[in-house]
Amino acid sequence: xxxxxxxxxxxxxxxxxxxxxxxxxxxxxxxxxxxxxxxxxxxxxxxxxxxxxxxxxxxxxxxxxxxxxxxxxxxxxxxxxxxxxxxxxxxxxxxxxxxxxxxxxxxxxxxxxxxxxxxxxxxxxxxxxxxxxxxxxxxxxxxxxxxxxxxxxxxxxxxxxxxxxxxxxxxxxxxxxxxxxxxxxxxxxxxxxxxxxxxxxxxxxxxxxxxxxxxxxxxxxxxxxxxxxxxxxxxxxxxxxxxxxxxxxxxxxxxxxxxxxxxxxxxxxxxxxxxxxxxxxxxxxxxxxxxxxxxxxxxxxxxxxxxxxxxxxxxxxxxxxxxxxxxxxxxxxxxxxxxxxxxxxxxxxxxxxxxxxxxxxxxxxxxxxxxxxxxxxxxxxxxxxxxxxxxxxxxxxxxxxxxxxxxxxxxxxxxxxxxxxxxxxxxxxxxxxxxxxxxxxxxxxxxxxxxxxxxxxxxxxxxxxxxxxxxxxxxxxxxxxxx
Length: 483
Fold this sequence. Notes:
Blueprint: H1 4-7, H2 9-12, H3 14-27, H4 35-47, E1 51-54, E2 63-69, E3 73-78, H5 109-130, E4 134-140, H6 144-147, H7 149-155, E5 164-171, E6 175-176, E7 179-181, E8 183-192, E9 196-197, H8 208-222, E10 231-238, E11 246-247, E12 250-259, H9 262-283, E13 286-295, H10 302-312, H11 322-332, H12 343-348, H13 353-360, E14 377-381, H14 387-393, E15 396-402, H15 413-418, H16 422-443, H17 446-459
Parallel strand pairs: 3-4, 3-5, 5-15, 7-14
Antiparallel strand pairs: 1-2, 2-4, 6-15, 8-12, 8-13, 9-11, 10-12
Helix pairs in contact: 3-4, 3-5, 4-5, 5-16, 8-9, 10-16
């Protein structure tokens, strides 16, 4: 069907959409502290006639914007948190922080929230003009970076009413995300011992830093005895002090455990806990295990993926102007060879015949103004996303659009430099139209929606089991020591 008369609302309301994006970029707040960013998006939703509710799912910076009534019900997922240490002047092709060490949108979440806002506006336009029954919900999802905000929301049943959800992510290609992801748990291990003079009376001390060291050594040996896809990252967040002549009475280490399935992460988590308990026994220290957050692995929904792929082809892909090309060329000169993204190279391995040749011909280009052919990748991506938790509850589809120069490294100042520029904004509006179009196709095809739900039921016959235990509250990483 042709829904362009409704998706044209994205262009008509572009000023509202992009103003919200810029406001979020300017605010640049980290996980669960995105109050200014939330306000900017909520204000835009209210101006567009959405009913807004803040603090949903017992998460202070989570919110919804709702329009319409009844079924079918589609949700668009928006994010708006930034990353610490990535402050950068917009439009500057060299590393130039606004505030040294400050926060910047190094993953493009200012664009992500705005693009999903645009899609919600277009579906609202359809419901308003046709008078048909249906509901569109914009889900404001905080703390994706290291916080798993959607998993906390999912635990509180925020997404249960939705028939299906669609989202996107800024990136370097126009493509459908058709692969799984790693589930993960983030856990803080705290050891408490006894302080003592390290020379005069070391026998009276019980070294918490020793316990952290022994735990880390134990986990290194565990690596041989888990499947190769498991990842166990750690950071020593508290060494107990900087005086070597003191037996340190307190120390902490933060672990991030990943695996292709949440069931595997649970098993690894139990084994790491045993190692931590052993380290405490060896050192005579007290152990506290503090579960911070977790997220599941992504469940691909092929019905939605195929619909999104069709919608990508219906709308004009952004093209570079000469000024845009010049800026990206200057920026490209400041990307080290080892920083350059290899995502397209990985994609090539999945494709065959003409599709493979087409994609190979674009490797090395400045900007990817083409659509990557749809191909399911059975290997999960190494990273993680809390979109995954939504995908266990209702059919969920995700796209990416080329908001950035082709060799942009993720989580970098180069991403921040492009976040308010014209290329990123054009690709954001393109993403909004694509998502809205696919959503309207599914809303108007009961058989397709039923097929998407049946696929999810087959993939997850036992339903969703949130990896975050009851009672665990959302916390920003930067606040962990203070807590």
